[in-house]
Amino acid sequence: MSNDALTHPTGAQAATHALLEAATTARYAPSIHNTQPWRWRLIGNVLDLHLERHRVLTVTDPDARLATLSCGAALHHARMALAAQGWRATVVRQPDVTDANHLAQLHIEGRAPADQPSALHLRTIPLRHTDRRPVTGEPVGPQQLQAITAAIEAENTWLHTLRPDQVLQLASAADHAQRTEAQEFAWRDELAYWTGGTRAAGTGIPDAAIPDRATRTTVPGRDFGHHGDLPISAAHDKAAVFALLHGHTDEPRDWLRAGEALSAGWLTAVEHGVSVLPHSAPIEVISTRQAMRAILASTGYPYLMLRLGTIDPADAGPPHAPRLPADQIIEQS
Ligand SMILES: Cc1cc2nc3c(=O)[nH]c(=O)nc-3n(C[C@H](O)[C@H](O)[C@H](O)COP(=O)(O)O)c2cc1C
Q1: Matching fold, domains 3-128 and 142-309
Q2: What is the mean pLDDT of residues 134-158?
Q3: What residue owns the CA closest to ligand 1's atom 2?
Q4: What is the Å distance from ligand 1's center to 4 Cα?
Q5: How far, rounded to the nearest angstrom, does the alpha carbon of residue 177 sit from its chain's CA centroid?
Q6: What are the start-end ranges of the E strands in 29-182?
């Protein structure tokens, strides 16, 4: 089909169908507490991404920075789906200055050769998931780290790998952040609403994905306030590498880009046998976010902490978290 064919009814229908598929694929994206805070609107060959305020964590994430970052991951998933299927699409971020919830617009311009790296990412998308078990396998090698870093940088975001002394600073910040949050009733309430149980409603983190005891780690992982059903080993994850996603400014547009970078880096990591575990508590609390900024020597703003490592590939790990059905997040007119 030539680009002109978009003006023909069948070509136009194919473009609309491709965008519908892209938004459907984007359901697999990671999101804070699996809130899936996105809503897509599809009209012809244009797909709009909106922040769904009803699924933003108002206590944990009052500025919607982590929700916006999650939407960025969904945007990158959709971009990969289009490029893998040979569609040339333009992306306009924040297309409407009067509507802060309108995060991006994807517009199909025409056909292009199918992009092979995107095709690999498209196959990886349903395989990627969050594994909270300790990373006890081989340490992440320089080539793996280089591939992940390059994927993140290609999305205009940076990855700072922490030195051992900085890991200790991070551990202290993560601990402080979680103690601070746990003192607040509203925060505990919000955490309990989104995590634990069997999650029949298609959102949130099921107990099956939460460790059944405290993980032995230098940097404490997310404290869900209760243990789940995920069996974990008693080994210490001392082989873990900790890194900060960061950038030059700290605006919603940066958070969206950071989400696209998270998706790019995480999919690349999976393709290189590396497990990624985000940890956002040190970003959620202002004082520890500032401590993270100090780690970056004030040259940049931290968006998300990541634990990188390897886990025995023979062990499938936790089941995938549930997802909302497509008709609840995609509007078509
Ligand atoms: C912005 C962001 C922050 C996250 N923070 C944490 C975290 O602090 N601790 C954690 O265990 N998982 C964290 N996650 C992982 C999500 O809980 C996970 O993506 C979600 O439950 C969906 O599950 P899946 O990744 O297995 O598809 C975060 C993910 C994102 C995108």
Answers
A1: yes
A2: 96
A3: 32
A4: 42
A5: 20
A6: 38-43, 46-51, 87-93, 102-111, 158-161
Atom of ligand 1 nearest to the CA of 279: 8
Adjacent-strand bridge partners of 158: 246
Q: What separation in Å is there between the alpha carbon of 15 and the centre of ligand 1?
A: 31
CB-CB contact of 73 with 263 (8 Å)? yes
Structure-token match 């023909």, residue found:
8
CATH class (in words) of the domain with range 3-128: alpha beta
**Ligand 1: which of 51, 75, 130, 181 to mutate, most ligand atoms within 8 Å of CB?**
130
DSSP assignment of 230-270 equals: B---S-B-TT-EEEEEEES--SHHHHHHHHHHHHHHHHHHH
Looking at the structure, give the CATH architecture of the domain made up of residues 142-309.
3-Layer(aba) Sandwich (3.40)
Domain ranges of the chain: 3-128, 142-309
Lining residues, ligand 1, CB within 6 Å = 30-34, 66, 69-70, 73, 129-130, 132, 205, 221-222, 278-281, 304, 320-321
Asked if residue 331 has pLDDT above 80, the reply is yes
| Atom number in ligand 1 closest to CA 262 | 31
- Over 60: is that where the pLDDT of 97 sits? yes
pLDDT tens for 242-295 read 999 999 999 999 999 999 999 999 999 999 999 999 999 999 999 999 999 999
Half-sphere exposure of 203 (CA within 13 A, CB side): 18
- CA-based end-to-end distance of the chain: 24
User: Does residue 126 have a pLDDT over 50?
Assistant: yes
Q: Whose CA is nearest to atom 23 of ligand 1?
A: 321
